[in-house]
Amino acid sequence: MPETLTAQELVASVETVAGCVLSVWGVLKILGMILMWIRRRRTSPFRELDSKLENMMEQLRVIEKEARENTEAIATLQLNELSSAFVHYVDHNRPCPMSVKNGLSEMYKQYKSTGRNHVANDYMERLIGLPVDENERRGQT
């Protein structure tokens, strides 16, 4: 049976991937702007580099598209995790540990920052409203 990640571990993994994707995307945007600037300043002896630069620009467009697709895939995974937590805690009327609530809140913030919301807002309101696990409250985690 595969190992199950806690909500905090999943949030940490998603944060790392999202940070990397956004960093790469930012660098690629800067490189694209530099290449456009170079192209504008070029003189005739450098025209043979046009095809190479155009190829690089096409590669940058492909990478940018993949970064957007990865961001969408991460958001889908985040919604799936929020939905699973909703079913596990809310639908089965279980107390929710504070650590899980905190992890899910962070995941929801990232999910919402992608411009998506769907039903996640309702899920989070109901998850946050759940009672805290009594063992955790007594310090018996």
Please explain how this structure is put together:
Helices cover 75% and strands 0% of the residues. It is mostly helical and 141 residues long. The chain has one domain (7-137). Helix 1 packs parallel to helix 3 (98-113) and helix 3 runs antiparallel to helix 4 (120-128). The longest helix is centred in the middle third of the chain and has 42 residues, at 50-91.
Give the topology.
Layout (H helix, E strand, L loop, with lengths): L6 H35 L8 H42 L6 H16 L6 H9 L5 H4 L4
Describe the sheet with the most strands: none
Structural class: mainly alpha
How many domains comprise the coordinates? Answer: 1
| Helix share, percent | over 70%
What is the tally of helical segments?
A: 5
Total DSSP E strands: 0
Which descriptor suits the 3D outline? rod-shaped
Q: N-to-C terminal Cα separation, in Å?
A: 24 Å
pLDDT below 50 for ≥5 consecutive residues: which ranges?
Answer: none
Radius of gyration: 22 Å
Order of helices and strands: HHHHH
Mean pLDDT: 82
How large a portion of the residues is in β-strands, by DSSP E? Answer: under 5%
What descriptors fit this protein?
141 residues; 75% helix; mainly alpha
